[in-house]
Structure formats: structure tokens, C-alpha cells
Amino acid sequence: MPKLLILPGSARRGSVNCKLAAVAAQLATEAGAEVELIDSNDYELPLFNQDLEDAEGLPPAAKELKAKFTAADAIVFVSPEYNSSITPLMKNFIDWVSRTETDDEPSLSAYRGKVAGLLSASPGALGGLRALVHLRSILGNIGVLVVPKQFALSGAPDKFDESGKLTDDSALKSVRGVIRDVISLATKLA
């Protein structure tokens, strides 16, 4: 079974996207995948700045996150929507992980050939769908194979119980479908 990394693009306490990421991690574990759920608060990174990179190299947190991407067969990105796009946190993670550390390292080595699934949650009616359009475009352009199925959870604050369990059966089925497709494609490519 493939190794999955689940990456929420939010660090906010009580985030519905972090809750959705936890649900995705549980479903992937139940499906037999090896899963690591990232806590975005564990990776405090400066805003990507090439002058900083040139002067100091990759920050330790970027190196650690990049190593996790490199070791994974697939990544499930769980992105909130900010102003009709992905969060600055998610973009910053993507940018830092994309950087090479040595002259002989292939460009975008942590991304090329990886499989990805896309999820989002929002209080709004679109569930963060507009962010997933941008995320799909970014990932496709850096060599990631994004599964066609994706899911955006609308009205998200009302769809989790106090323990973080997703209470909407239709939504749970949709998340399970994305996870199933990610695992299936990653298994076929392994």
C-alpha cells in the first residue's frame, strides 16, 4: 500500500480543513495506506524569498517537510479558500518544497510523479471549490498527477460533531472516493 501525506493548508485552531484532513487520514488508514497527517503549526517557515534562500539555504522546517514529500507516494492537499484561491500557507509550503538543495538534484524532485488528491472545506456554499481550481493548476504544472475526483465541503462548520467526526454521510462518501482514487493510482504507479 502507498504512503500518503495529508497536508492541511490551515494552521488555525478549530479549522474545518484540519478536521477534514483528519477525516481523510482516518479513511486512508482504514483503507490500508501508511498515513502521516501533517500539523501545519509544526512547519513555521518564512515567506518564500529567493534572496533568503541564496543566503541561508532551505530553512530546517522546509528540509523536513520536503523529506516527507519525497518519501510519500501521494499527497492529499486539504486547502481552505482565501479570496477565491489557496491560502498563503499552502502556497508557501508548495514553494519551499519545490526548491533544490544541490546542483545535481533534479528540479521539482519532491513533486514529479507524485499522486495528489484535493479536498477543501468552507462555511460558504462552494466549499472552497475555487481554491481547488488554482491548486490543481499549480500541482499539474510542477509534475504532480492530480486525480480527477475532488471534494469541496460546503457549510462545513455544521458538518462535524464536537469530536471532529464528519456527520454528513454523503460528504464522507465523497472524501472516501477521493482517498480511494489516490490510493488506487499511487498503487498502480508504485
UniProtKB/TrEMBL annotation:
Superkingdom of the organism of origin: Bacteria
Pfam families per the UniProt record, alphabetical: FMN_red
Domain NADPH-dependent FMN reductase-like: 2-156
Annotated protein name in UniProt: NAD(P)H-dependent oxidoreductase
Protein source organism: Luteolibacter arcticus
